[in-house]
Specification:
Helix content is 49%, strand content 0%. The protein has three helices and no strands. The radius of gyration is 23 Å and the shape is elongated. The two termini are 42 Å apart.
């Protein structure tokens, strides 16, 4: 056995401990499970995403818009504001 020490935000730790306790686990067991899965699968065992604004498809779309603007092909018109609910 070896010991690993790391620093983590107190709120993150407390929220995780509450959730793990509800699952019948403690932090040490959960981290051991996570690291075992990483070692076995050679990957992070869940999807990690970034802001979709920076996705390859959106950057391509924005570059096309800029090209249209630069070539005076862009068609601008007013539209209603689209409301998005943050869940």
């Amino acid at each position: 056995m070896t010991q690993v020490n790391f620093r983590i935000d107190e709120d993150v730790k407390e929220n995780a401990e509450r959730a793990l306790k509800a699952m019948g686990l403690n932090m040490s067991t959960a981290i051991t499970m996570f690291l075992t899965k990483v070692g076995r699968e050679q990957r992070i065992p869940f999807e990690i995403t970034s802001d979709p604004f920076y996705s390859e498809s959106n950057i391509k779309h924005l570059k096309q818009i800029m090209s249209d603007i630069n070539e005076e092909k862009a068609n601008f018109s007013e539209h209603k504001l689209i409301e998005v609910d943050d869940e």
